[in-house]
Amino acid sequence: MTRRYFGTDGIRGLTNAAPMTAAIAMKVGQAAGTRFLRGPHQHRVVIGKDTRLSGYMMESALTAGFTSVGMDVIQLGPMPTPAVAMLTRSLRADLGVMISASHNPFQDNGIKLFGPDGYKLSDSDEAEIEAMIDSDVALAEPAAIGRARRIDDAQGRYIHFAKSTFPEHLRLDGLKVVIDCAHGAAYKVAPAALWELGADVDAIGVAPNGFNINEASGSTHPKALQMRVLETGADIGIALDGDADRLIVVDERGQIVDGDQLMALITLQAQEAGTLKGGGLVATVMSNLGLERWLAGRGLGLTRAGVGDRYVLEAMKAGGFNIGGEQSGHLILADHSTTGDGLVAALQVLAALVASGKPASEVLHLFDTLPQMLKSVRFKGAPLDNAAVQAAIADGEARLNGTGRLLIRKSGTEPVIRVMAEGEDKALVKRVVEDICAAVVAA
User: Fold this and answer.
1) CA nearest 325: which of 365, 409, 267, 273?
2) pLDDT tens digit sequence for 234-275
3) Largest CA distance in the chain
4) Are the CB atoms for 68 and 141 separated by under 8 Å?
5) Would you give the distance in Å from CA 417 to the centre of its chain?
6) Please, are residues 261 and 364 in contact by the beta-carbon 8 Å criterion?
């Protein structure tokens, strides 16, 4: 079924252009609020946001929508996406909303919805809400209109929760940590949590101005973090994205450690502690074959899901796994969180580092990756239906000849086609990707 509003991670787009307008946001609030008006209790929704300029507008519009159908609104202000999920459960709310476009530039924004259990909404729930957005919903009687208020201790509540996932017998004393918060939602809570655990914290990307979120910073632009780690002689660097549900790490040598290596480390720790569930972990079709081979060597399996942390979580639930994630750094640790949490994942990595007593470069690189290349190509029309593009894809598969993988997919959050290939021959992988991308551009 073609969707008009929802993509793979909520609703996302250019601000002040459909679907990310104030008018549509108000309708989303009315539709989602109506969908979750269940039972005789006073209903409430928790709303958090990142640091984009448009967050003020979207927050006000959503608040108007929810209160107009009789829901009370609790506004958290700038908070990580996982904090919204956690506080939705903690505050016994009927619904949680995060206003963020994650790692996208400030011009974009998005709306992510969580159910009362703290999990992202199912496809069926989103479909029902989408059907109601363009229809008239019943508004509350004047005396039943909802109220809105802010809570002042939201940051402290989340910091306490995040710290509770760190082993009680360990501390970060003496560990120099550079953290890049991408001028985003975690710019206060993440450095504070690390400092309270004893780390020597050097925080960058912590001066949001409404326009600089993810700009040359954070998990998608780790160069600034790499340079800072090397300049200061830090033990490790941590990079979050704009809404802090994604984590990338830099070791003391300035080398980037992606989500595949981090999942391997956390899985290893859980296996040795006897807490691993499901006999392995869940990753996506994008994760490197090197991870799969490393797991197999330890008698563990890799279950692959579609791209998107919600699909990883669905596979985790179905298979009884407690660890899953994406190469991009979305890591879901089900024993702690209902969604990806960059800070909580970082704390598990830091715990492993402290417990080992070894340099990050020795602890964080557990397997050799196969050559892999990913390129994104903007498109118009339907290039995947083009005969020349289909022929280029078939030719690429034949050239890899069973020694690697080829994956072509449309992004669910922006108008691009992602072309990924991996295999034993780096030069061949590069040629295959470039040839397919050229065919898409020419289509």
Assistant:
1) 267
2) 999 999 999 999 999 999 999 999 999 999 999 999 999 999
3) 69
4) no
5) 19
6) yes
Check if the beta carbon of residue 436 is closer than 8 Å to that of residue 379: no
Closest CA to 44 of 99, 101, 90: 90
CA separation for the pair 287, 335 (Å, rounded): 22
Question: What does the H/E/C string look like for 10-22?
Answer: EEEEECCCCCCCH
In contact, 25 and 62? CB cutoff 8 Å: yes
Tallying the residues shown for the chain, one arrives at: 443
Catalytic residues: 102
With a cut of 80, say whether residue 412 has pLDDT above it: no
Sequence-distant (≥ 6) Cβ neighbours of residue 336 within 8 angstroms: 165, 344
In angstroms, the CA 77 to CA 62 distance is: 13
| Strand order across the beta sheet in which 176-180 lies | 200-204, 176-180, 236-240, 247-251, 256-257
For tokens 């925080």, what's the residue? 203
Reduce the DSSP state of residue 423 to 3 states and report it: strand
Element containing residue 293 per DSSP (H, E) = helix 289-297
Distances from the Cα of 181 to the Cαs of 133, 202, 334, 353, in angstroms?
34, 11, 23, 21
Bridge-based pairing state of the strands 372-378 and 331-333: unpaired
Rounded to whole angstroms, how far apart are CA atoms 133 and 385?
Answer: 31
> Quick one: which of 50, 351, 75 has its CA closest to 188?
50
CA distance 392 to 310: 31
Cis omega (within 30 of 0) on the bond before 19? yes
Distance of CA 244 to CAs 76, 103, 238, 329, Å? 15, 9, 11, 10
Using CA atoms, how far apart are residues 396 and 388, in angstroms rounded to an integer? 12
CA angle 273, 354, 178 (to 5 degrees): 130
Element (H, E) at 282: strand 280-284
In eight-state DSSP terms, residue 263 is H
Question: H/E element holding 239?
Answer: strand 236-240
**CA angle, residues 114, 43, 160, in degrees to nearest 5:** 55
pLDDT digits (tens, 9 = 90+) for 172-224: 999 999 999 999 999 999 999 999 999 999 999 999 999 999 999 999 999 99
Q: For residue 348, give the amino acid letter.
A: Q
List the one residue out of 196, 193, 201, 198 whose CA is nearest residue 172.
Answer: 198
> What is the C-alpha to C-alpha distance for residues 11 and 111, in angstroms, rounded to an integer?
5
Amino acid making up residue 194? L
Which residues 6+ apart lie within 8 Å of 297 measured at CB? none
